[in-house]
Design brief:
The chain is α/β, with parallel strands linked by helices. The protein has helices spanning 17-30, 47-53, 80-85, 96-101, 106-118, 131-135, 139-147, 179-196, 199-204, 215-222, 239-248, and strands at 6-10, 37-41, 60-63, 90-93, 122-127, 161-165, 206-210, 229-232. The chain has an 8-stranded parallel β-barrel, surrounded by 6 helices. Strand 3, helix 3 (80-85) and strand 4 (90-93) form a beta-alpha-beta unit. The two termini are 15 Å apart. Bound molecules: 2-phosphoglycolic acid. Residues 10, 166, 171-172, 210-213, 231-235 line the site of 2-phosphoglycolic acid (PGA).
Length: 250
């Protein structure tokens, strides 16, 4: 089964409007037209400008979050329809910073995931254990629980479902999972998807690794059979380091 790898940049709460446009232009200029899918997820307020900056390129526009309701009295929130209006093609759910810093519950994450997928966008659903959970041998159980936020009965297109495995202890710490640690959890995730959906579906779902992925460690991680790309934070804030990871995924 050949899956087209997907490398997405999660810019988090970084850049300014001008820096976002410059970064987006740099990524668009260097991204290959095929063999790897490339995406960027800027802050909400720069989506429009970044969408214009990558216009005409192969780079997909993504959002870091959304709210599950369509519209209404939800102060400060952004709906999937609003994202689509700006040309957004994919959206993250369950990022560890939303789970652990913003205190999103599994139930809320699941509702957001259903709204993203149901709205026709590609869903990047993030899962991953905290350090104390890894030390207590709970890694696979935590990932299973977070995968169970997704509902197989409403998600039928494996090409629009992406799982990002992001061990919390590796995010922004400079300490990435080893190639073997990543592969072990990715293989478990694919198996869990096969049990929830079926094997054919699981074989098509892309599973990204995230957590201190950078040009120096990307090739090793991406060489593992179940690592189908990356969700990149810090190294996505410079076009050359992000594109080096993209090239390693080809
Ligand atoms: P990092 O972040 O690459 O800076 O570790 C990854 C992520 O949080 O998606």
């Amino acid at each position: 089964m050949t899956r087209v790898p997907f490398v997405a940049g999660n810019w988090k709460m970084n850049t300014s409007k001008s820096a976002a446009i410059e970064l987006a232009r740099g990524v668009a200029a260097g991204a290959p037209a095929s063999s790897v899918q490339v995406g960027v997820a800027p802050p909400f307020v720069y989506l429009d400008a970044v969408g214009q900056a990558i216009g005409g390129s192969s780079v997909l526009l993504g959002a870091q979050d959304c709210y599950f309701e369509k519209n209404g009295a939800f102060t400060g929130e952004i709906s999937v329809e609003m994202l689509k209006d700006l040309g957004v093609k994919f959206c993250l759910t369950g990022h560890s910073e939303r789970r652990h810093v913003l205190k999103e519950s599994g139930e809320l994450v699941g509702r957001k995931a259903a709204a993203v997928y149901g709205g026709g966008l590609t869903l990047i659903h993030c899962v991953g254990e905290k350090l104390e959970e890894r030390d207590a041998n709970q890694t696979l159980a935590v990932c299973q629980k977070q995968l169970d936020e997704l509902s197989p009965s409403t998600m039928h297109d494996p090409d629009r479902l992406v799982i990002a495995y992001e061990p919390v202890w590796a995010i922004g710490t400079g300490r990435n999972a080893t190639d073997a640690q990543a592969q072990e959890v990715h293989a478990f995730i694919r198996g869990a998807i096969a049990r929830k959906w079926n094997k054919d579906f699981a074989d098509r779902v892309r599973i990204q690794y995230g957590g201190s992925m950078k040009p120096e460690n990307a090739a090793g991680l991406l060489a593992r059979p179940d690592v189908d790309g990356g969700l990149i934070g810090g190294a996505a804030l410079k076009a050359d380091s992000f594109l080096a990871i993209v090239m390693a995924a080809r």
